[in-house]
Structures are given as structure tokens and as C-alpha cells.
From TrEMBL:
Domain HTH gntR-type, first and last residues per copy: 10-78
InterPro entries to which the protein is assigned, alphabetical: Aminotransferase_I/II_large, HTH_trans_reg/aminotransferase, PyrdxlP-dep_Trfase, PyrdxlP-dep_Trfase_major, Tscrpt_reg_HTH_GntR, WH-like_DNA-bd_sf, WH_DNA-bd_sf
Protein name: Transcriptional regulator, GntR family
Family the UniProt entry places it in: In the C-terminal section; belongs to the class-I pyridoxal-phosphate-dependent aminotransferase family.
A Pfam family that the UniProt record links to this protein: Aminotran_1_2
SUPFAM superfamilies: PLP-dependent transferases, Winged helix' DNA-binding domain
GO function terms (MF aspect): DNA binding; DNA-binding transcription factor activity; pyridoxal phosphate binding
Organism listed in the record: Aedoeadaptatus coxii
Keywords: DNA-binding, Pyridoxal phosphate, Transcription, Transcription regulation
Gene3D superfamilies, sorted: Type I PLP-dependent aspartate aminotransferase-like (Major domain), Winged helix-like DNA-binding domain superfamily/Winged helix DNA-binding domain
Origin: domain of life: Bacteria
Length: 461
């Protein structure tokens, strides 16, 4: 007879179901074994007949039992499941190691998001139904209109909402491009640049090429002349910070037209320029419609928002609609609608103005730790959320980075973003200041300077 030690907190029929199922799976009940009648088992276990009936019904539905009318319930013939012996596994590292001092150039540190205006916009979006239940593959119209208004005012781009596609990250936007562009187009990335971008290509079997840049950014005269898609960051090159001069911009656009190529403009942090007016986007000069403009709200609002977008040239937008890729905007309508209200009401631009002041203050505070010291050479473009620090210490860059990480500092070097052989007389650190809270900056940068000076004392320089 079946015996079950019932526990509190779980329905009795489910406990009985689990017990019988496990006996069948473990082959402790042979096939065609007849089970006790509902009444007999209920009496034996001290539970109701309905409880036994519910357990038998589930086992019957899932195929563990079969019933013979007026005879009873029997164990179904099920093959024995082969089990691999359990092995002790090392605990997986689900999270990246945390450092006491985080100089990561990819992170921002304005943590008051969602702020009150965005929360209000979210609540207002929940109360209305104009676009909440709409389905637009490219994203809801109101947000695409708001983005176009912003691009026209701040980036000099006269874009139509019909050419804007929203998604939850650059990788999704690239999938659309892979689908609509001819297969013989090769993609080229800046070097140094955001090398992890090449991971986007791995599932497709494509292998991107790399274009080495100089102190002025990408040089169109040194391009191969091959038709392709060139990913560039002309306003604030990543990670060197160089600005592509207008003469090179014009040559790059003419090159794209002459070779039937496309330019992907990655405008990842153009909002953060701390002097003069913002530099217009490359797309603003694009009279031949060869530039695919990409940007996001990760730095300006929050990486957790996961809102990215691209503006396609008319020809590519027509190809997109003709081929109709089976992808749709994955951002919830409620988030899209809240963001559109946030922008329409002027809160986004006000936030950017406030952020620029805060980040510029942090930038100046960080630079003061290195200014005037012959051990360091600063390359600061007065833009973005990082600067490059050359440390005149005769040591390999990777050795220096390991040395600093052992001292609880998360920091990158230029070699981390370089494809192929990297040579430099001295290591170059890419010092991010955006992620560190003001109350931690003094302690963090003091610790960084101290560590570098201690290492320098052990070397001849």
C-alpha cells in the first residue's frame, strides 16, 4: 500500500501525485501494476476520496496511469529514465566582480532615474489607451515623433518618424540590417573601438574588418574602396575621444556614395560636450542618404531602460518594408509612451542640461589629481564620461591593469579596445569618472594616484 508523509504548505493531492509519479519514474512501480482503489487509498492515508481522485486524474492526464473501466487504475508502460550521476559543480559566477573603485568608462552615475517627472509620465500612460494597445513594429508613433523633434533641435538631423526604428539595444538593430542589406556587404569597425561589437557578428558567420584610426579619427583616404558598411563614432570617437573634422566628414560621405557603401553613425554620448555648442551629427551633412544613424538613452537616462533607435535612409526603409523582417519592437508600449511624454514635456532636455553640469564638475575634479604631475599626461577632449591618462611608467599595460585590479580598482586601458597587436611607449588608462559618486571620488582618485606612484617607484622611469 502507498504511504505518504504529508507536509504543510502544499496541496495534499499534489503531494500524492508527486509521490506516485516519482515511484513510477524510478521504476519502483512496475508497468501494469494496479493501484489501490480511490476509497481504499483514501482510508489508508486518512484523506478524502476527492483528494485521491484529483491526484489520479492528473497522473492519468499526463500519461503515468491508464484506466480500465470497472477495473481500476494501472501504471503505464514507461521506459526507465537514464540519469547521469550527479557531479559537484563549481558555483557559477552570475555577476561580475565588484570593485571598491569603479572607473568604468561605460557607466553613468546619475542614479535618480526614474525621476518624479518620468514616474508621472508612466502613470499618465497607464491611464490612457490611445497607444497602450497599439502594435507598431517600428515602435509607437508618438515616441518616434519625439525623437525626431529632439534630433532636429540638438543634432541637426531632419528625420521623418517613418524612418525611425526602435529596439532594445544595438544588437537588435544590427539584426535588422543583416536582414535587409545585401549579403556581400562587409562590415568594418574602428580600431581602437568598441571591440565587443564584433560579438554581434559571430552568430551570423560574418567576420568584420577593422579600420585603424589616427588622432583625427577615421581617414577616408586610407579606406580600401570596397563596398561595405562602416561603423564610426565621428562626434566623440570611442574610446580616443577624437572629433572627426568636417573635411574628413565630407570625404567619408563622398566615399560612401562613390562605393555604394553605408555609414553607421554611432552617436553614443554626443550629449556630453562641456564647452561651446554641440557638434552636429554626421547625418546632418548627409545629402545622399548614406548614413544610418544610431543612438540610445543608456547614458542620458538609464541602461536599464533599454531603448535604442536608428534612422534608416529612405532606400533601406523601403527594403525593410518590402522584406518585412519577423522582428518587432520589444520595448513595452507603456515604457515607450512614458518616454515620449517625458520628452514632449521638456524634461529630457532639462535633465541633459543638469547632467552636463554635474558631469563637467566631476570631470574637473578628477583631472585635478593628475594636472601638473610629470608622471602623467592627460588627453582630455572636454566631452564624454572619460579621459585618457598616459602613465610614464615602463611597464606593460596589461600588467598595470592587473596591478590596479588587485587593488580593488575597475579600470580599462587602450589595449582593451584594440584589435591586433598594440604598441605604445607607455600604458594608457581610460579613466571613467561618470560612475563614481562624488563622495567616493576623492577617496577613489587618491587611491589611484597613490597606487601608480608606488608602482613608479619600483621601476626606472
Amino acid at each position: 500500500m502507498i504511504t505518504v508523509n504529508f507536509e504543510e504548505g502544499k496541496a495534499l493531492y499534489l503531494q500524492l501525485y508527486d509521490y506516485i509519479k516519482e515511484d513510477i519514474i524510478q521504476n519502483r512501480m512496475a508497468k501494469d501494476t494496479k493501484l489501490p482503489s480511490k476509497r481504499d487509498l483514501a482510508h489508508h492515508l486518512g484523506i478524502s476520496v476527492n483528494t485521491v481522485s484529483s491526484a489520479y486524474d492528473v497522473l492519468l492526464d499526463e500519461g503515468y496511469l491508464y484506466a480500465v473501466e470497472r477495473v481500476g487504475y494501472f501504471v503505464s508502460p514507461i521506459e526507465c529514465l537514464h540519469k547521469t550521476p550527479r557531479q559537484e559543480k563549481a558555483e557559477a559566477k552570475l555577476f561580475a566582480p565588484r570593485y571598491r573603485y569603479d572607473f568604468d568608462l561605460n557607466k553613468n552615475g546619475i542614479f535618480d532615474f526614474p525621476d518624479v517627472p518620468f514616474q508621472r509620465a508612466m502613470m499618465d500612460s497607464m491611464r490612457e489607451d490611445s497607444e497602450m494597445n497599439a502594435w507598431d513594429k517600428e515602435g509607437i508613433p508618438s515616441l518616434r515623433r519625439a525623437i525626431c523633434h529632439y534630433l532636429r533641435a540638438s543634432r541637426g538631423i531632419d528625420a521623418s518618424p517613418e524612418n525611425v526604428i526602435l529596439s532594445a539595444g544595438m544588437e537588435y538593430l544590427f539584426r535588422i540590417l543583416f536582414f535587409i542589406l545585401p549579403k556581400d556587404y562587409r562590415y568594418f569597425l574602428e580600431n581602437p573601438g568598441y571591440i565587443d561589437t564584433k560579438k554581434i557578428f559571430e552568430p551570423t558567420g560574418r567576420s568584420p574588418g577593422f579600420v585603424t584610426i589616427d588622432e583625427g579619427g577615421i581617414d577616408p583616404e586610407k579606406l580600401s574602396g570596397r563596398r561595405g558598411v562602416y561603423l564610426v563614432s565621428p562626434t566623440h570617437q570611442f574610446p580616443t575621444g577624437s572629433i572627426l573634422r568636417v573635411d574628413r566628414r565630407v570625404k567619408l560621405l563622398n566615399f560612401a556614395k562613390a562605393t555604394d557603401s553605408y555609414i553607421i553613425e554611432d552617436d553614443y554620448d554626443s550629449e556630453y560636450k562641456y564647452y561651446g555648442r554641440l557638434i552636429p551629427a554626421l547625418k546632418s551633412l548627409d545629402t545622399t542618404d548614406r548614413v544610418i544613424y544610431m543612438s540610445n538613452f543608456s547614458k542620458s537616462l538609464s541602461p536599464g531602460l533599454r531603448v535604442s533607435f536608428m534612422v534608416l535612409p529612405d532606400e533601406l526603409m523601403a527594403m525593410y518594408r518590402k522584406k518585412d523582417p519577423l522582428v518587432a519592437c520589444p520595448i513595452p508600449n507603456m515604457v515607450q509612451r512614458a518616454l515620449s511624454k517625458y520628452m514632449e514635456r521638456g524634461y529630457f532636455e532639462r535633465r541633459l542640461n543638469r547632467e552636463r553640469k554635474q558631469y563637467d564638475k566631476k570631470r574637473k575634479a578628477a583631472l585635478r589629481f593628475f594636472e601638473g604631475d610629470p608622471l602623467f599626461e592627460i588627453d582630455d577632449k572636454r566631452a564624454g564620461l572619460h579621459f585618457i591618462l598616459t602613465c610614464k611608467i615602463p611597464v606593460e599595460e596589461k600588467e598595470l591593469l592587473e596591478y590596479l585590479r588587485k587593488r580593488d580598482m575597475n579600470i580599462y586601458g587602450l589595449s582593451d579596445f584594440f584589435e591586433g597587436e598594440y604598441n605604445a611607449p607607455y600604458p594608457k588608462l581610460i579613466v571613467g569618472f561618470g560612475n563614481m559618486a562624488p563622495e567616493v571620488m576623492e577617496e577613489g582618485f587618491t587611491a589611484l594616484v597613490r597606487a601608480l606612484k608606488e608602482l613608479a617607484e619600483t621601476k626606472e622611469y
